[in-house]
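Residues and backbone
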Amino acid sequence: MKYLFFTNTPAHVHLYKHAVRTLRERGHDVLVLARDYTCTVDLLEWYELPYEVYGSCGTTKGSLLSRLPAHYARAIRLALRFDPDLVFGMGGYAAHTGAVIGAPTVLLIDSEPASFDHTISTPFARAIITPNTFRKDLGEKHYVFSGFKECAYLHPEIYEPDPTIRDRLGVGPDEPYAILRLNAFGSQHDVGKKGITGSARRHIADHLDEEATVLVSDEGDDTDLENISARQFDLHPALMHDALAEAELLVADTQTMVTEAALLGTPAIRSNSFVGDDDMGNFVELENQGLIHNVGSVDEIVDQAMGVLASDGIDETWQRRRDEFLSDKANLTEIIVDVATANGRVDELESVRQFDGALASEPSAAVGVGSD
């Protein structure tokens, strides 16, 4: 069979990379259609995945919107040439391309706030698959699995850390380091949202520097490091998960990397304007399990960060929580491959179930830094 995968962001490359390899090893024909956005193409090259670029955009919302017509035209043209049996993606590009070329589409979705994208994409999907923490009903074709999309590449059955990462980073074997990850907020679902900006970046970095070496990963590349007690994360982006696995702490205003930290057993503090009563279900669940902290202010970031960095035994605590949390979570790559083999007809697969609105687990009894 022939499978087409859309990777619009770097996270999508990680989501599908193992499934693409597995399907190709089984003799199927696979093509990735990529948007040249930040390091998406760099990752496809690193993992040696077969791809075509359907368009590019910068890290501003205007950059994406102005190029949408050209993106669609080239994506449809490339898809028609490839003639897939099934299309995988996370939104409008995949759903609309599949509809135009007459191929069924499977959407993997994990962000509840992207309501507009859901409205314009889900009617065209053969199946919609989300984590079981997803709190929004997407209709009769909505199925859920146990875990998060990051389980496709950070599940214990798949992920193997790079033992040379500290040498690559230039940090000592016992040198604590923290990662400050800054989002560009350039996607459609980021409209009206913001994260850690301006002088807050320096304030946070200066405090982190009191306890650890600080590495900054800035998607928008607009942080002036000359005035900050930190240095740039300058390795290939494919090595970020290895760096994250060894870090003492992640402070971030992004979404995906916070989940990645949790699944690697690294304490994470998340702060952006998504945080609040209407936050996404996966981040509520991760906080309930004591794996991340969702906070709304710079002062809260600093307080939580100092507490984590000053605590003894934090590594063991977080690793235990991580192991317990992942003990019943699915290997999403296996599910993607099963869905592909079933040509998107997921109703008979045991690894997914139809969405029923069941809520995620309640908070653990004690999730403070030193509570267990």
About this structure: The chain has two domains: 2-155+329-354, 165-325. The longest helix spans residues 61-82.
